Amino acid sequence: LKPNSDLIANVEEEVAAYSQEKSIEIEKLKDLEKYRREFLGNVSHELKTPIFNMQGYILTLLDGGINDENINLLYLRRAEKSINRIIAIVEDLEAISRLEAGELHLNFQEFNILRVTDEVFEMHQLMAHEKNITLRTNIQNLKNIMVVGDKKQIIIVLSNLILNSIKYGKQDGFVKVGFYDMDDKWLIEVSDNGIGIEAKHLPRIFERF
Question: Is the pTM for the entire model greater than 0.85?
Answer without folding.
Answer: no
